Amino acid sequence: MTNEFVRCGAWPSRGLRRLGVAAGLLLSLAAHAQVKILVNPGDQGEQSRGATMTTWRTAIEQVLRKERFNDSTMAGLADMTSDLSATRARIPDVVVGPAHLIGSALRYGYTPVAQLDVRSQAVLVVPTHSPITNFQQAAGKRLGLPMQDSLVTYLLRGETVAANTTIKRHFRDLYETRYQDALLVCLQIGRCDVVGVEKATYEKWIAAGSQVKVIMESREVPGLSLAIKDGSKISADAFRADLAEVAAAGSKTTRVSPQDFTYVSTLGYFTPRALAGAKVVDAKTVAAMLSAHTARYIDTRNDAEFNEGHVPGSVLVPYVEKSAKDPDFTSDVDQFNVAKLGPERDAVLVFGCNGPECWKSHKASIAALKAGYKNVNWFRGGLPEWRAAGLAVDTNAK
User: In whole angstroms, what is the distance from residue 274 CA to residue 328 CA?
Assistant: First the structure.
């Protein structure tokens, strides 16, 4: 089986930072059918990420040899945001990733197969001498977190929303870093009052003698897991059998079910259920509007997602999202070409993307309202709801 690093035209990529250390890894495999496999090692140090990538790559190649899939090529994806979008669009056939990536994938037609026998949990940590003892007392303090798409941030953001607030409202300042160990330094130098890390990272700090304590923790979620797209020709049993052999390398895997992801699936980046100034519409309403030619459907996703499948007659106007998936997002860091919506401010517009977890259509709707458009309709359910309603999907490229 040959392997070479390439840029994949089907999936946007900023390239690999270094061999085996990309935020996501796509293996395009061709034999009797082309298979796309996405591997995201999640929140780990650079060396651990490389080792994890190698372990999964080896296991996957073993399965593919048995299943007679040959000639693999590999291309790196940019980050978790891209990987989440890819699974919502059902681009990869096989996905390996942390619990929030798999939990999201299950809602869009994937079935979990196996997980590493090491569960994950997020905790909020403060110095031992801190007077802060719980989440409420951390209000107005300076928070340190991994980047917004890490599992830790996903879990803690969800728990914060569950407490009827947001990160921006509850904390005075937010410091973000790629590496969790950098958050210990943030505490030590007084830049952060409280930080969020994986429990395993906290336990490592304690073992090294660091003076820190936990003030809040999430529930446990599955460790790095593998899921297969429903309807795929890839054998779930073959993957389970081969992954069990990885135990010899110190990475024991166990069977996992959709129920194991119930908790993580209730958290995360769900958009609000209402949007001031706009009308929230369902698939049936959108279909009627388009059939009567009274509205324009604005697809706010990227080219690859659009080409994979879109609402017939829709117009692609990508919302390039850099801001937080949060009601308090700052649009200044995002890009959206409002001019492509047309000059008529009374035009009826429908904005959609990849379902309730996708914030692009929500943010684009707000941008349209700010620009003076008066008939903004937000299709919160987006393409997944459209598919679920049994409506036709167009796969012609834009």
Answer: 15
Is residue 219 within 8 A of residue 263, CB to CB? The reply is: yes
Under 8 Å between Cβ of 377 and 348: yes
Structure tokens at 58: 């080896």
DSSP state of 317: -
Strand ranges inside the chain, DSSP E = 24-30, 35-39, 70-77, 94-97, 110-116, 122-127, 142-146, 173-177, 194-198, 212-217, 225-229, 253-255, 279-280, 296-299, 315-316, 348-352, 375-379
Tell me: the pLDDT tens digits for 299-341? 999 999 999 999 999 999 999 999 988 888 899 999 999 999 9
Quick one: which of 70, 106, 59, 64 has its CA closest to 87? Answer: 106
Phi, psi at 65, each rounded to 5° = -65, -45
User: CA 17, CA 226: separation in Å to the nearest integer?
Assistant: 24
| DSSP three-state, residue 323 | coil
What element of type H or E holds 75?
A: strand 70-77
- Tell me which residue of 61, 54, 58 sits closest to 19, measured CA to CA: 54
Give whole-number Cα distances, 192 to 139, 141, 144, in Å: 13, 8, 6
User: Diameter of the chain by CA atoms?
Assistant: 68
pLDDT, tens digit, 9 for 90 and up, residues 44-70: 554 466 677 777 777 777 776 776 666
Distances (CA, A) of 18 to 46, 284, 392, 393: 10, 47, 41, 38
Cβ neighbours of residue 204 closer than 8 Å, sequence gap 6 or more: none
Q: For residue 157, how many C-alpha atoms fall within 13 Å in the half-sphere facing its CB?
A: 25
Name 394's bridge partners.
310
Angstrom CA distances, 74 to 28, 212, 245, stand at 6, 41, 23
Give the integer Cα–Cα distance in Å for 286 and 238.
42
Instruction: Give the contacts of 287 (CB within 8 A, at least 6 positions apart).
Output: 386, 389, 391
Rounded Cα distance between 393 and 387, Å, is 7
Contact predicate 182/190, CB 8 Å: no
Contact between residue 133 and residue 215 where contact means Cβ atoms under 8 Å apart: yes
Closest CA to 102 of 290, 312, 314, 265: 265
Bridge partner list, 379 = 352
User: In whole angstroms, what is the distance from residue 137 CA to residue 326 CA?
Assistant: 22
Residue type (1 letter), 256: V
Q: Give, as one character, the DSSP assignment of residue 180.
A: T
CA atoms within 13 A on the CB side of 14: 11
